[in-house]
Amino acid sequence: MNEEQFNALLESVRQADEIIQGKAKAARVLEFAEPEVKSIRAKTGLTQERFANVLGVSKRTLENWEQGRRHPTGPARALLKILDADPIHALEALNH
């Protein structure tokens, strides 16, 4: 890494610190829509119990997501996105 690259990296770290401290605003903010869990499940044709098993969560967790009391995160959210985009092949890949 040359000095110019180092200085550019250092400046971006300083900018990030200012954003974290609330002294500056981010140039752009990416927001991702909450998955519509109930409609995604409807696409699969699965019951709540079977769909919860596919996602590896309890039926109660799935109910909370569908009713908006809680929101999926991490791997569950990624799997929901895949199921939403291509439910048939996603379920085939998951052997269900």
Automatic annotation (TrEMBL):
Domain HTH cro/C1-type: 37-91
Keyword Transcription annotated: yes
PROSITE patterns in UniProt: HTH_CROC1
Keyword Transcription found: yes
A Gene Ontology molecular function term of the record: DNA binding
Alphabetized UniProt keyword annotations: DNA-binding, Transcription, Transcription regulation
Pfam families per the UniProt record, alphabetical: HTH_31
Listed InterPro entries: Cro/C1-type_HTH, HTH-type_reg/antitoxin, Lambda_DNA-bd_dom_sf
Ranges annotated as spanning the membrane: none
UniProt protein name: DNA-binding protein
